[in-house]
Amino acid sequence: MVNDGAPADADVVAQVLGGDGEAFGILIRRYEPGLLRFATRMLGNPDAAADAVAESLVRAYRHLAQCRDASRLRSWLYRITGNRCRSHLARRQTNDISLSDAPPPALADGSDLWAVLERNEQVALVERALAALPAEKREAFVLKHVEGMSYEEMAAVTGARIPTLKMRVHRAREALLAALEEVVR
Amino acid sequence: MSPIDLRLQEALDGERGPGELPADLGEAYARLISAAQLLAATPPASVAARVMAAIRQPPVPVQTEGPMRRLVRWLARPRAVTVRLRPAWTLALAVGLAAILSLPFVPGFGRTPGAAEGVANFVGHFPGARSVEVVGSFNNWSRGTLHLSDHDHDGVWRGGTVLPAGQHEYMFVVDGERWVPDPLAGRYVDDGFGAGQQNSLLIVRPVAALP
What we know:
The complex is a heterodimer of chains A (185) and B (211).
Chain A lengths: L8 H9 L6 H20 L2 H17 L10 H19 L21 H19 L3 H12 L4 H8 L3 H23 L1
Helix pairs in contact in A: 2-3, 2-4, 3-4, 4-7, 5-8, 6-8
Chain B lengths: L5 H7 L10 H17 L8 H9 L10 H10 L10 H16 L14 E9 L6 E5 L19 E9 L1 E9 L3 E3 L7 E3 L7 E7 L7
Antiparallel strand pairs in B: 1-3, 2-4, 4-5, 4-7, 6-7
Helix pairs in contact in B: 1-2
């Protein structure tokens, strides 16, 4: 994912490996939002997600020479972050995540308070439904529908086979739809 | 939870236009897409500053000096020598390793270890290799700081350095391009990248703790 005029990932990686460590900031700015979003949805806690992403980015920097295909850096970074999230969940010895300590999104200046509250309520509802999914299905749904990845890229991120990933996404959709319909009734 | 219509799955996978769905499936489609959009809000936090601060910390320096100076150091100081053996090679290499261990020369020592430091020896069997070096958590996984030597061209590459006491992850880089774990390490940890590869693990004991 490169904006017009921005250096390609492979060029930035070569720059960093050539000794310009500050250039790694370009990659952080490029991928941090998606990684934080992914980790937050996986862990359900913004602080734990920030820790996981920070650890992942430091690790990625330290092992950048081991990224065999810099043109697939995004997949590599998501893979490292996904592993960190799984380790974090394993330490908690459960795939369930708690959203109780997650702060609500900040209100924008001049926004319609009621509209924002309603939206926050909807977000909380969807987050609860997502949190109820097993980690593998949660990860598959988030990568597919929140991060917008293809099944091929998801396979590179998770190491799972494409038919397996399709099945996880399908099951996640069914579970989410059932949970959302339950609330509507 | 019941299976949802295959047409809905196909539409969500982009294999079918949502406009082709009947009304009830179209409603379910819209509900799931809306849910995904609600989840797509980017958290306001940023970790850029702390990541950059962490990576600006310099790696542990690995110094080198001449063989005579190393020999003097070796003769003058107590040594903590860590040697890792794999049983399958032990028999074949027993004579060679015994000779190596008895040599009063351990290449790669940078300096005399301090109280909280120890000496790590690396030995690898890479017949035909043109170069072997060690990269690890102690040198920021950077190449060019710790080269092993094979002076007698028997395929056994060896070298050593002073490292802070504690646990270090490392790998050998053979011929500048092939990253391989140390088959003699005995301990390994997952490299964290999910491909099932492992880094070798080295535990350096502080000189002060040695008898």
